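Subject: Sanity check before I submit

Could someone independently write out the structure tokens for this chain? I want to compare against mine line by line before I put it in a report. The sequence has 461 residues.
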Amino acid sequence: MKLLTERAKVVLRTASERGVNTTVSTKARLPQFFSPLFVLLTFVLGALTDRIASPEHIVNLLSPPYWGVILWNLVVYIALFCCAIGLVGTRTNRFALPLRSSLNAFVQKTSYGTFRRSGFKSHFYSEWSSFVAPLIRMNVARTLHFAALFFALGIVMSLLVRGFGTSYWAGWESTWLAESPESVKTFIDYTYGLIPAVGPLPPMPDLAQIVQMRADRLPYLETPVSAAPWLIRMMILMGVVVIFPRLIFACFDTWRMNRFKAQTSLSIESSYFENILVQCAQDAVLGNLLIVTSSVNRPLRDQTTSVLCKHWGSAEDSVVKTIDFDDEEATIPAIPSSPRKPIVLVWFDGIETPEEEVHGAVIERLRQVYESEGAAVFAALLDMKEFVQRFTSMPARLKERLESWETLSNAHQIKLFVLRDSSESQLEVIKTIRAWAAPRISSDQNISVTDTDKKEMNNEQ
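---
Independent answer below. Compare away.
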């Protein structure tokens, strides 16, 4: 992992030097401002809802918004319990409730602004959003818990404010229960009555008091019922049923998010990272590349050799030299200076017919110089591009020419790499050469290469 980190730093530094902007954010921008804004909005709505739904100067004990919040949260708790035991949800997301799923899909699609991005950033954000999908789900769940909590706090704050500067009465009003005070008393006993009458909290009123507490009769009472004890009971109920449970859920989701961040790591068990690690292992042992070609001019050779050198590495890591294959006294190109053993490739053109007196002799002369004291790793590279272009319609001729070169290389016990007529072939040939040369250099120089790297290198052959 340290190797990949250092490699990423080099890539980013190189991109910066070339003026390429590689800045990407791995944090979803939407939740950073959306979550606090959403929670703040729910708090304001909670503070306004109860005031709008209750008559002036009267605290409605049957307030629909108040009891709607209580009932909604109880339903949510039941749904979460069903999710926890596996009755609802999916294998990948057990808590896939409708509201959560909708918000989660919205956040995933819009958080990273992928609608307006293209190229590598769009691909990165697509992969990254899939990787952090569990974290996004936890964030959405925590936001919803905080929203419910602050909505309840808004209602509580509204109830508290009512007690300062204004005198309120406690009463009730209902269209359906107006003529059924018995039902109202039963409801009050099994809700507000759950809170024991201690301290400033009086016991539950009897039926006659319930009748007198109807909203339209309160103005005519000699001593209206004070709202203070009822406001306390309402705040206690809201705290027990909504605020404290939601706070526990939010803290639990925060703990899950922190654990996910601490325990989750990017998997490097993929072909992409494996290729990088193999390439780095090869770079650690491979030296410069020297290509020795014939002095006979070929129209496609210069272009092809430049592409091969580019695939090998930086400009200073490879060089192309020419000699006269027919001149037995021709000076053999010197090996480039390098702390690691270089790789020498003798370049043969497939358009030429292999001759023992010419090509075989060149192989032996070069081998004597480059392999005499283990100075380099020596191999042959056969360029079949021009020959393939001329005889595309004659596969038998192509096969015959290739077999002739293979016979020559086998006779001189030299590894032969074949370059065919495609741009992909050039890159594949370089990969094959690197994979073939790296373990040979490491064994000669006693450089440590892991078994995994050797296995991957051998698989490239």
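---
OP: Matches mine. For the report I'm noting this point. The chain has 16 helices and seven strands.
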